[in-house]
Each structure stands twice: as C-alpha cells, then as structure tokens.
Specification:
With 159 residues, this protein is mainly alpha-helical. It has six helices and three strands, in the order αβββααααα. It has a three-stranded antiparallel β-sheet with strand order 1-2-3, with helices on both faces. α3 crosses α4 and α5 packs across α6. The mean pLDDT is 97.
Length: 159
C-alpha cells in the first residue's frame, strides 16, 4: 500500500514530484521508501521501462560513487565470462519483463527491461533497485553491486 506520506517522502527524496507509484517495493529499516515500483506507462503516456526505481538519497549516492569507480566494467567482464551469471541475469531479465507485462504491456519498451539486462551492465541504480525489491538471488549483478556498496539497507541513512 502506498500512502500520501510515502508519496510525499519520495517527492522529497527525488526533489521532484513522484510519478505513478504502484507500490513501495523496498523500505529503509526506519520505514521510509527505498525503492518504488512504477507504472510501465506514466499518466502522461510516456513509456517507463524501469519498474523498480531507487529513491533514497544515501543509497543513490552510494550507487553513483560505485558506478564512478569503474565497478560496472568489472561486472561487465564477469558477465562476459561466467555462464552461470549470464544465465541468472537472463532469468532476472525475463522475470522483470513478465512482472511488468502483468501490469501493462507497453509495445514501445517490449523486450527492454532495465540496467542493460540481459547482456550489458548499464545502470547500477536500476539493478540495485531490482535486487532490493526482489531480494537476494534474483538479479546477480544487482546483488554483487549491493554487496560492493559503502551503504547498507540494514542501517538507516535517511536524511
């Protein structure tokens, strides 16, 4: 359930109005939103492929720092060489598409999930958001990025 308080908090976190939130997919240990689940097509008609969107500022800052460190290249190399990671990442992509399409089929984003899945590592924010929303073992790249962060979902860093 999404409350007006949740929407107000996400708006504050993002610094802009929250749009088309279906659910709070993950919460901070303090209860504030951490990841939102967003409609596949926004109210204004825009396709929105990112079903899970990381919103908490400390988490997004930590992911930005990790991206800037070059860690995405390491993950891309792992993806290119590890058949087990490849298979799990493809499964995460397929699950993501199925979940989004169960909400609404949006032709413009057909077969496009998030974060570069299933063959690239493009956006750790989206991949970490997916891992936080679905839990460990669903998205291997999101899980690895989450482990590498200097931030933890087990400790409140809300401002």
């Amino acid at each position: 359930m999404v409350t007006q308080s949740d929407i107000d908090e996400v708006t504050r976190q993002l610094g802009r109005p929250a749009r088309d939130i279906l659910a709070i997919a993950a919460r901070c240990v303090c209860g504030k939103p951490l990841v939102v689940k967003t409609k596949p097509r926004l109210e204004n008609g825009t396709p929105f492929p990112t079903l899970y969107y990381l919103t908490q500022s400390a988490a997004t800052a930590a992911v930005s720092t990790l991206e800037a460190s070059g860690y995405m290249a390491e993950l891309q190399d792992l993806l290119a060489t590890d058949s087990g990671v490849q298979a799990s990442y493809l499964a995460a992509h397929q699950q993501y598409l199925a979940e989004r399409e169960a909400i609404e089929v949006v032709e413009e984003i057909n077969d496009f999930s998030c974060g570069g899945m299933p063959v690239r590592v493009k956006c750790l924010h989206a991949l970490v958001g997916h891992s936080l929303a679905k839990g460990p073992g669903v998205n291997p790249i999101g899980d690895l990025a989450l482990e590498a962060l200097n931030w933890s979902p087990s400790r409140c860093q809300c401002v």
